[in-house]
Each structure stands twice: as structure tokens, then as C-alpha cells.
Amino acid sequence: MAETDSKSTVLNGGSEENEPGEDQHKEGDACGSTEEQTQSSSQNAPKEVADTSGDKPMADVDGETEEKREGEDDEDTDSMDGSGLYSFTEDGERESEGGRRERSTDKDSGKRAARKRNRPGGGTHHSSSSDEEDDDEDEEEEQKNDDDDDDDEAMEAWLGAELCDLRRPVWRAVPSLRSREIGRDSQQFVRRVCGARGLVQRLELQGRLERHTGCVNTLHFNPSGTRLASGSDDLRVVIWDWAIRRAELEFDSGHKSNVFQAKFLPHSGDSTLAMCARDGQIRVAELSATQRCKNTKRVAQHKGAAHKLALEPDSPCSFLSAGEDAVVFGIDLRLDRPANKIVVVKEGDKKVGLYTIFVNPAKTHHFAVGGRDQYVRIYDQRKINENDNNGVLKKFCPSHLVSSESKTNITCLVYSHDGTELLASYNDEDIYLFDSNHSDGADYHRRYKGHRNNATVKGVNFYGPCSEFVVSGSDCGHIYLWDKHSACIVQFMEGDRGGVVNCLEPHPHLPGMATSGLDHDIKLWAPTAENPTGLKGLKEVMKKNKRERDEDSMRHGDQYDTQLLWFLMRHMRNRRPARPRREGADADTDESWSSPDSSDEEDGGPDHVQCMAS
């Protein structure tokens, strides 16, 4: 790095002088973080956290200085929020572009002079032709370096845009512990701890759960958080006692292709598990208190893959499903024919295949869907009229994607804890936060950048009891956590050796989460690191993800070939004559893909599979 004598920019306009011999500093971004602070916080012991924190407390209104506050007995000097975060800055908070260009030009000139001196002959000119060749090489290399510098500046400007200041830490360790000891706010202690940025910055790998023989596509904690359900490409579902890392129950799901989701139904005593898969089936497993699976039953059938289920928060017997056939089914296990077609999602006259669905936890009659176009659609189950705007209550989309030719898809969406916000992850685009109470057509509220969502149908989630953070996996194999308000990255972890993290499931009551991806195991994370994260390597990985995304966008026409191949394969499969049933085989055949009704009750009863204890 080139050296500089300028001072570091800190939150609220404060400044700090650089130490002697310090490398060129990176200006504090909208989150108030610098690269020097990152290095300092990762090297110093926790006792220095208050001095190295990238999240400096804001100046008090009465002008009280930092030193006075540190001297007070009732103030916590270790908020467990002491990492200097690496992030990108707004242009207005950086040093001037002119200063950077001057230093860059001086450096390039020095490099060219050094190259000339190091050439054979020590810079002695043997002929005019060799001089011309040297000049041409210098010009080409200079042009290349200038282009690289421009690309880097444009990249950092893009990554640094739309960031806000990190808020001062809400939770502080020592005062909170003191309050709990004397019985003050003890009931809120765990809730506040789970949403503390200082603990998020200390997340690290605790262990692995190993049982599956295929990619793990789904994770779901039961409501009490004592059990974890996982489903995989191996067509098996495992129920884990994750605290002791032991599989309590393993059974065959009954699906014929990759299991995409398995969820405990609420208030069912953990005895009912709903599942969906690539084969389009929606199945329900009945579990016993003696750690056995009694059976699994098919309750609905999509004419295409079914990626997601949406649970109603207070219902032990009803839930929704969405499939690539554009159909949303409402499933009520109390009925003889459980599946009821609620809506067929369309844009104009064209069906929109669905990848994700979620029920609003505050208004359970509202649900949101996303799929093979750029729109988040919200429906109200009480008044769906497909002749009126195709039954849609509201539609949201980032304004720059409305007329985009990139053909973006929504791979996952989720509501916040109180249903006021809606988070959507776009294929090979960014993650966007919408206000679900805004009017139809409103633009996004926040944008979260840096990851890559291209190779798989990737999930996204809120983290924290009050949805304080946004968490997502990435094709680069890392896990990203953003502060929801500022859109700054506060945690960055390597989450998958296979290169892709798909599923992220926060624990419902404790500060931690489970993740999975292309690896065949499940990873458990908890805030046990001694020091907060240094976000090492984040800048390079983010730039690499953006560069690869831009390169792929130049070749976006290839996706039409992929869709055409998918269509032809399905068409040939449907034309293939049905295989004769083997004695004792399941009642299902490929005919269920073209059945006009999702429920197969008229075909001789639902598809049952008896399960044996593992």
C-alpha cells in the first residue's frame, strides 16, 4: 500500500492520528470501520476492545469525552462489539479521487522506470527499433494498469453505495450481567443477547452433524429448539438432538427425488413433519413419542418440483405449498381431501413457476410468493379473485429490475418476526428488503451486497429475535451476515468445503444457527470466539463475486438454452409409457405428474410408506 499522512475518518466526524510507519489507511465506511481497526481488533486481547472497536459510541449531547465515559463505574468498556469491520465507503467519506490518482500515477511512473533499468543492457539503447518496442510495451502496460485501477475504483464505489452508519451497540455485556444478577430485566436477557452485534461478530464453528450421504437441502428447528430436522438428496430425513450431536430418528421420506424441505408443524408436539421435494409431492410424516416414524402420507401433488412450504404460526394441521407449476396449495390435514388449490400465479396470461412461499406471521391470511420473474407477490387468502389483477394484493420489485432484460428470479423470501418487512434474494443479483406495509409497486428499502447467488436455489433469512440481521449463503462457500439497518457486513465465515451454502436456520431462542450446503454434513455455529471477527479476505471475495457475476451477465443468453433443455426433458418424460407396477410397489406412478387433481384419493387412496426406526 502507498503511504499517506492523512487521518482516519471515524464515526460522527471524529479523527484519530495514524501510528508511525502505518500503511495507507482505508477510509472509514458508512459503518465507521477501517482496515487498520480490523487488524488491530484481530490482534489485540479483549481488554483492548473498547479502544479498537469499529463501532465507536457516539458523542454525548453534553460534550462528555470518551475518556470520561470510560472512567465511569457503571459503563461497560467491553461491549463485546469491538471488531473493526471491513466495509466499503461512500465517495464523500473517502479521500479525494485526485489525490489517489496522483499517487497512482507516481507509482506507475516509478514502476516503468524500474522496468527500464532492469531490462538487459541496463537501459543502454542498441537500436531505434528496440526503443520503439520498449515504448509500445510501456504504453500497453500503462493502459492495462489504468484500466485495472478504474475497474477497482468502480467496484469499490458500487460495493460502498447505499450503506448507512452502524448504530451504537444496544446491548453491553457488563451492565446487562449486573442487571440480571439483581433481577432487573432478567426475562429479556437472552432475547437481547441473541440480537447483540458483539456476539454475531464472535460466531464460529462448533461442530458437525454427519449422517446424510447427499447434499443437505433443508434444516428446521422445532418450536422449542431442542430438535433439528434435516432432509437430503439421499431421500432420508433425520431428526437430531443437536446439543449432543446425535441422530435420534432416521427414516425414508417416501419421496422419489431430492428432499427440498422438512418442517415440524407448530403445536403438534413434534409429532407431525411436512415435507416437499423435487418430485412435486407434498408428504406428511407421523412421528411417535418413542422415536419412531409411523408412516408418511402423500397429501398433494404438484406438476413440477415443490421447493418450499409455508407454515401457519398457530396451526398444527394446515400449511401452504408452492411449486414450479405456479400453483399454491392450501393443505388442511383435517379434511379427507387435504389439498385445495388457492391460486395459480400469473403475470398477464403467463404462469410464473414458484420457488418460495412464506406466511406473514402477524397477518396469517397474507402470504408472499416468488419465483421465475422479478416480482414479489402478496396475496390475501380471504379475497383472491383471479379476474382482478390475477388475485394479487401487492407486488414489489426493485425499480431497476422492473424492465431488466437479465431475467432475474427470486430464489427465497421471508417475512420479519413481526411481518412488517419482507426479504427477497434474487438469482445472480442482490438481496432486497421491502416494507410489506407499503403500497403496491413500492421500491426496496435496503440492499445487501457482496455474496453470489447463482449455482443453486439459495436461501436467505433474518437472524436475531427482532430480525436485527440478514444472513445468506453464497456460491463462494461463505456465510454473510449483514446489519439490517446499515447493510454493512458484520460477519463473514467459511461455511462449506463444497463451495456453496444454501440453507441457514437460526435457533429460535439461542444465539446460534445451523447451516448446510453441498457438503453432506450440517454445521453448528455459536458465539464462542475469544475475539470478534477480522473479516479477513472479505474485500477480495466480494470483488471476485461481483466480477464473476458481471462476466456471467454478459452470457445470460445461455439460460434460455438451459430452460429449453429442461422443458424437452420433461416433455419426453411425460410421453414415456408408464412402467408396469411391481407387486408390492407404491401406488404412485409418473401419471401423478399429469393428474388434474393434486390429491390421489380417487386413485385408490393416498400413498403410504411404512417407516422403521433407525
Short description:
This protein is α+β, with helices and mostly antiparallel strands and about 625 residues long.
Outline the structure in words.
21% of the residues lie in helices and 28% in strands. The chain is built from ten helices and 33 strands. The strands form nine sheets. The chain has a five-stranded antiparallel beta sheet, with no helix packed on it. The longest helix is centred in the N-terminal third of the chain and has 33 residues, at 128-160. It is globular. Residues 1-79, 81-105, 114-126, 557-567 and 578-606 have low confidence and may be disordered.
Task: Write the SSE topology.
Layout: E1 8-9, E2 15-16, H1 35-43, H2 49-52, H3 66-71, H4 97-118, H5 128-160, H6 173-181, H7 189-194, H8 197-200, E3 203-210, E4 216-221, E5 228-232, E6 236-241, E7 246-252, E8 259-264, E9 272-277, E10 281-287, E11 293-301, E12 306-311, E13 318-323, E14 327-332, E15 339-344, E16 346-347, E17 350-351, E18 354-359, E19 366-371, E20 376-380, E21 394-396, E22 410-415, E23 421-426, E24 431-435, E25 446-448, E26 460-463, E27 469-472, E28 478-483, E29 489-494, E30 501-506, E31 513-517, E32 521-527, H9 538-553, H10 558-575, E33 608-610
Antiparallel strand pairs: 1-2, 3-32, 4-5, 5-6, 6-7, 8-9, 9-10, 10-11, 11-33, 12-13, 13-14, 14-15, 16-17, 18-19, 19-20, 20-21, 22-23, 23-24, 24-25, 26-27, 27-28, 28-29, 30-31, 31-32
